[in-house]
Amino acid sequence: MSQKFRLAGGGRIDRTRPIAFRFDGATLHGYAGDTLASALLANGVRLVGRSFKYHRPRGILSSGAEESNALVQLREGARTEPNMRAPQVELFNGLVAETQNRWPSVRFDVWAVNSLFSRFLPAGFYYKTFMWPASWWMTYEKIIRNAAGLGKGPTEPDPDRYEHRNVWCDVLVAGGGPAGLMAALAAARSGARVIIADEQAEMGGSLLSDTAEIAGKPGADWVAAVLEELRATADVTVLPRTTVSGYYDHNYLTLLERVTDHVGTGPDGKTPRQRFWQVRAKQVVLATGAIERPLCFLDNDRPGVMLAGAVRSYVNRYAVLPGRKAMVFTNNDSAYNTAIDLARAGASVTVVDLRREPAGDLVDVAESAGIEIMDGCAITGVKGGKRVTGVTIRRLSEAGDKVTGGSRSMGCDLVAMSGGWNPTVHLFSQSRGKLRFDDGLAAFVPGRSFAAERSAGACNGKMTLSACLNEGAEAGRAAARDAGFKAKAGSAAPKVDEPETGEIRSVWVVPSGKPLGRGGKHFLDFQNDVTAADVHLAHREGYVSIEHLKRYTTTGMGTDQGKTSNVNALAVMAQLQGVSIPEVGTTTFRPPYTPVGLGAIAGRNVGEFMDPARGTAMHDWHAEHGALFEDVGQWKRPWYYPRHGESMQDAVNREVLAARNSVGMLDASTLGKIDIQGPDAANFLNMMYTNAWLKLPVGGCRYGLMLHEDGMVFDDGVTTRLGENRFLMTTTTGGAANVLSWLEEWLQTEWPGMKVHCTSVTEQWATVAVCGPYARHVVGSLTEYDKLGPRDFEFMTMREMDVAGIPARVFRISFTGELAFEINVPRRHGLALWEAVWEAGQKYGITPYGTEAMHVLRAEKGFVIVGQDTDGTVTPMDLGMDWIVSKTKGDFIGRRSFAREDTARDDRKQLVGLFTEDPHQVLVEGAQLVEAVEAAPPMAMVGHVTSSYYSPNVGRSIALAMLTRGRSRIGETLHAPRLDGGAPVTVTVTDPVFYDKDGVRARG
Amino acid sequence: MFLIGCPWCGPRSQQEFHCHGEAHIARPKDPDAVSDAEWAEYVFNRSNTKGVLYERWVHSHGCRRWFNVARDTVSDRILAVYRMGERRPKVTP
Hints:
The complex is a heterodimer.
Chain A: E1 14-23, E2 26-32, H1 36-42, E3 49-50, E4 57-58, E5 71-74, E6 81-85, E7 95-98, H2 113-116, H3 125-129, H4 137-147, E8 162-174, H5 178-189, E9 194-197, E10 213-214, E11 217-218, H6 219-232, E12 236-239, E13 242-248, E14 252-258, E15 274-286, E16 290-292, E17 305-307, H7 308-316, E18 325-330, H8 334-344, E19 348-353, H9 361-368, E20 372-375, E21 377-383, E22 390-396, E23 403-411, E24 414-418, E25 421-423, H10 426-430, E26 435-438, E27 443-446, E28 453-455, H11 465-482, E29 523-525, E30 530-531, H12 532-540, H13 546-553, H14 566-577, H15 581-584, H16 598-602, H17 619-624, E31 628-632, E32 635-640, H18 648-661, E33 664-667, E34 672-677, H19 681-688, E35 701-707, E36 713-723, E37 726-731, H20 736-750, E38 757-760, E39 765-771, H21 775-780, E40 798-803, E41 806-811, E42 820-826, H22 830-840, E43 847-848, H23 851-860, H24 901-904, E44 909-916, E45 928-930, E46 941-951, E47 956-964, E48 973-976, E49 985-990, H25 1000-1003
Parallel strand pairs in A: 1-7, 8-9, 8-15, 9-12, 15-28, 17-24, 18-19, 18-24, 19-20, 33-43
Antiparallel strand pairs in A: 1-2, 3-4, 5-6, 5-7, 10-11, 13-14, 14-15, 16-25, 21-22, 22-23, 26-27, 29-30, 31-32, 33-39, 34-37, 34-38, 35-36, 36-37, 39-42, 40-41, 41-42, 44-47, 44-49, 45-46, 46-47, 48-49
Helix pairs in contact in A: 5-6, 5-11, 7-8, 8-9, 12-14, 18-23
Chain B: E1 3-6, E2 10-13, E3 18-22, H1 36-43, E4 52-58, E5 66-72, E6 78-83
Antiparallel strand pairs in B: 1-2, 3-4, 4-5, 5-6
């Protein structure tokens, strides 16, 4: 295998465990402990993708979450994921990754032509160019989406399993570097329940890449000792490979744990792929470190231009030499560490320092190591396209705005740049903390806290190891104390010897000697291809607000959320406006810190677990008898029961005819049922329903409409008086929970003195509705027929009796307009009752019918379905149901609103029936009604179709509609234009009752 | 995701609750005695306060009790939780 850039020794990789992987079809090798990025660098792969807009060749920039260039398509098929950051992908055997945003290949990319025309693709290009004609937008969009954009989403369902954990803790520590580990240790030693999470496979953060010693031992040894103690402490949870992704209200944080992503194969069926932790923490310690800033110089995006800290990490942690002849380009001391470690690893190194005469311990070490230091100089250009081959260097003017003197060219294959460090304040900002600009760091640091959190270490602007350890210890102790624990002795931070460091010199746009935008590009945002020239253009065009600048130029709007670009872009804007950076402001950081897959957010709430499915006691019978089911709320209701070869229309016609001509049976168990008890129950119903309830005799049933206080119908149903102080209310199937909540709301908040209790008994009862001319015969054969006579058992009453030997409540109520009995038995007897009715009904040709036939039957009678024929803007009077609104009983909910101007106006929509001109044509529900058809919309709409069916009993199609002044229009002709391009349907307005207008059949 | 101290069950996550808007809006004792405008005020209009808002919550996936919450709508901090019928507490955001 040829890992040409792998160092012979050192690093935290396991050379005894080689790993094979594929990148753009080529098989390469790395070691356990590698990331995809480190393995690619070890193999000398420099070109790893094409940029978003200009399709410029791009290489690996960073070694962490901030990566904005090396975004790859990871895995294949159903498990493929786009835009995965190569430095955060752990290498595993069989890993497959592809470059993105190139065609046909990353080396030869047709769309790179964009780069040649880049002068015509400035900031705001999309807004300026594609304004007209509007009808071309869709075409533009397709082309642009093909040319831009990054990876591709999977097209198959996600085969993996994801899990949620809901936990609480006293102290949550975000970040497992020196500050985070120290904080966790201090908090744990106080006895607090601690969770520490870090996004990397190994805890330790910067210490894994650093050569610093802690208490005289390598940093990694200290990390191992701390982890050992933490893992041995009760109530401490150590979560590597876990990103704290979001910080929300009241110290609720979300963590994404990648449980088996690094293994590569699909989970074993038991272990989830990822685990989404939802943590409520009393106190939070943020120890999220810092992200290095790129320098903004000409063609700073060429493959081989990397962040200096990342280069150091590749050398020390992954034993990879990212280049043999390196330029280190810096404005601060930290990059000298990189220069020193590169030289030690065998590279030839030159430092180009923007500062004049830099001084400090690290500069001295570099000089004594023989590293050439070009102070007061700038890299003014980068040579090479698909990889860096050299740079040009000139002297920087005193003010930093010009270069002077001759230019010197130097060959190189690596540029390690450092523009200073930005504290990773994302979570702090998400917690609603206010940021403060630190001039010494030239960066935003946490200012005023909002939530119960504290920042420690580099994320708080502390850039030395000793400060990180000390602040971590203090934060851990303080967090535990504020969570109610006493600090214990022995949690002081260990001693560290550190070099003194000098100051930073900010040069936000490094001059090249040419006008900005000429002869190359100064990139600010690599992922979205935003240059310094774009910000200048936005400024010239009058974009003053940073929020506008961000959207216009798209700075920081990639999946990296501008981790490397935001402060640099702000600084350029500040320079242009002649103000300080904090005066320009900063944009809001929003969760998640790094992208979180939808699978993890959904967790186990997918497929059959997404929502409970409710079935009745007779569900299996329906399934065995060929029923197709319809979802009504969470319930699975039989829709219709097709016989062999029967169409839906044929089946529904057969069921509807049977219910009118012989006998049908319906599973009505799903209707909501609420048991209402108490001395004030009747008075309570009197307030909740529009009609009067005080005089309903025991055993009597009454239909009721329930309104909201605005006077609009929101539920209906039949309520039966079971005793002096006890009622059984039924509700619509879908409305049951809302009705119970509605009742409780009034009882608990407005009338707490009322002595009434409401209990849902929906699932305690199974209901078989038997309807049709032979209903009495069928039910009579299962009980005493004589007790069912029209005078013995009157319409709208309830009797308790045994049916098929089962104690039952039998209701003489009807939703079809036929003679009907609704038999209620305890749920456990539901199937037995259903089968008994089925057996008894055989000689009458009993026919089970589903919800579709039920809808046709009720529509034939003009019975509305609340929620279908009504939509929350319909009063009882609009429905023509004035008869159910008591004028004499006094107050009830919604009554006062009838007198409101809008409710009382005479041009409201009213319920009517419709006949189509062609009796076989069935209108589309939702169709709009117009008086006159125009050639094209808009047309004056006077109503809409709410229910529409073919009715075999009426012998034609029927429809219900809500129509302006509908009742005064009976007999008028209207039209229903069609969306499908067919000819408008001509309709005649009719009465909404199509069958048995006098209602004699149900009373029979 | 708020942490809400149900007066009956103790602190629970917001997902167990539903918010039902502004509290202390009494239904007029005699609806016929109020004007249309006053009735509309009761039915439709809510204060949309910036600052301390007294609102009704119900522990729908718990004890199913209704109670009142004083919440600062700027900070989303919950300043007080009290039972139905109790006087609204004085709080400062």
